[in-house]
UniProtKB/TrEMBL annotation:
SUPFAM superfamilies: Sialidases. GO terms for cellular component: cytoplasm; membrane. CDD domains: Sialidase_non-viral. GO terms for molecular function: exo-alpha-sialidase activity. It catalyses: Hydrolysis of alpha-(2->3)-, alpha-(2->6)-, alpha-(2->8)- glycosidic linkages of terminal sialic acid residues in oligosaccharides, glycoproteins, glycolipids, colominic acid and synthetic substrates. Belongs to the glycosyl hydrolase 33 family. Its EC number is 3.2.1.18. Coiled coil: none annotated. PANTHER family: EXO-ALPHA-SIALIDASE (PTHR10628:SF30), SIALIDASE (PTHR10628). Keywords: Signal. It comes from Saccharopolyspora elongata. This is exo-alpha-sialidase. GO terms for biological process: ganglioside catabolic process; oligosaccharide catabolic process.
Length: 414
């Protein structure tokens, strides 16, 4: 079904990073510094940018769950992550942190604390920039640090905070949002991860949307959408897919607006977790009523082979139906070696020219090392960036760092 393209290597600009720890934002370094990652991909060179976060930095054991947005004035990139203090587990003492770049990701400032776990878990950051005011809304989740271990009680609550200014230098305190979950979702709940969506057309223009994931007793599991019609001040629960017993378990939604105003939801299919297959691990669905319901059940996306893992989507070009320049992007790991195809290795960008109806099967290599979660950002002018988890080849660890790479449309194999 897909438009299979030969494997190519992303010719990404060499980026730098300036990594330090301080409570206040710092100006980026005058010149790029730090390691640049270039690994053999079997098809050539993969030039993948530099570290934004690395294990051990700032007193954190590791950083995970990247999310990236650009401020309304286009001057600043904000790279959010979970700062995991004691180990790299999904629960425990975890903060939400960010770094900023004022040069399109060439260099990055210091770690800034956005939400302090204080021994508990705060994570799954989902930032959304209001296109009208520039205010940034940030959805996250919280659980007691002693909970949510394997087979244990898991009280997960969504939280909301806002930037006090359009550049995100100060943040309000996180406020609980109990209306965005249900009592029966008592084994798991998560926002995003990755950036959120704001609609640009139609009756619900400016509506903000975020994907959610949930699990409950009795095997109930699935995904849904939450939305705001007042610039992120208040939020409601929208579409829900919880068709228990089906062979697709949509998780970790990432969203984009189609040219006809619908909401395209790209999902990880958790049903295949633990299996050594690279097929059937991605699913999608569409909402034609601005996120109130899903038009149909989630269905497998056959072209998007790869491991069971989160992925990101973003529009690079086209805003109106029928635009011949239509191009949307998907980021996620996929190694073509049959023995490695189910592993989190080799980050790629794959494209769709028909609003997600079909996708490239191979696409363009960003980083030919261990790689996991990612988030895409449109930089304008046919340029984009990707913030992603990665680790050196010898580490066998996709969570050793969070890196950033930027690229142009001409770098993509189509």
């Amino acid at each position: 079904m897909g438009t299979k393209a030969a494997s190519a290597v992303l010719a990404t600009a060499v980026l730098g990073s300036a990594c330090a720890t301080a409570p206040e934002p710092a100006a980026p370094a005058a010149a790029p510094s730090g390691p640049v990652f270039a690994q053999s991909s079997g098809g050539g060179r993969a030039l993948a940018g530099t570290e934004v976060y690395k294990k051990g930095e700032g007193g954190y054991h590791c950083f995970r769950i990247p999310a990236v947005v650009r401020t309304k004035d286009r001057s600043t990139l904000l790279a959010f992550a979970e700062g995991r203090r004691k180990d790299c587990a999904d629960t425990g003492d975890i903060d939400v942190v960010l770094k900023r770049s004022t040069d399109d990701g060439k260099t990055w400032g210091d770690i800034e604390l956005v939400a302090d776990g204080g021994g508990d878990t705060r994570g799954n950051p989902v930032p959304i920039v209001d296109g009208e005011s520039g205010r940034i809304s940030l959805l996250t989740t919280h659980n007691p640090g002693s909970e949510c271990k394997s087979g244990a009680k898991c009280t997960r609550t969504p939280f909301l905070q806002h930037s006090a200014d359009p550049k995100g230098t100060k943040w309000t305190a996180p406020e609980p949002q109990p209306q965005l979950t249900k009592s029966e979702w008592n084994t798991w709940y998560a926002t995003g991860p990755g950036h959120g969506l704001q609609l640009t057309q139609g009756e619900h223009r400016n509506r903000m949307l975020v994907g959610i994931t949930f699990g409950g007793s009795g095997g109930r599991k699935g995904a849904g959408l939450i939305y705001s019609d007042d610039g992120g001040t208040s939020w409601k629960l929208g579409a829900v897919d919880d068709r228990t017993g089906k062979k697709i378990n949509p998780q970790e939604l990432n969203l984009l607006e189609t040219t006809d105003g619908a909401v395209y939801a790209a999902a990880r299919n958790q049903d295949n977790n633990g299996t050594e297959t690279s097929t059937g691990n991605r699913a999608d669905a569409t909402s034609t009523d601005a996120g109130a319901t899903f038009e149909q059940e989630f269905a497998v996306v056959p072209e998007l082979k790869g491991p069971v893992v989160q992925g990101s989507v973003v529009r690079l070009r086209a805003k109106t139906a029928g635009d011949p320049n239509d191009l949307i992007l998907f980021s996620g790991p996929y190694n073509e070696d049959p023995k490695m195809a189910h592993r989190r290795h080799t980050l790629r960008i794959r494209t769709s020219a028909d609003e997600g109806a079909t996708w490239q099967e191979v696409g363009t290599v960003v980083d030919a090392t261990w790689a996991a979660y990612s988030d895409l950002v449109n930089l304008g002018g046919g340029r984009a960036g990707v913030l992603y988890e990665a680790g050196p080849q010898e580490s066998n660890d996709a969570h050793a760092s969070i890196r950033y790479a930027r690229f142009e449309e001409g770098d993509l194999d189509r």
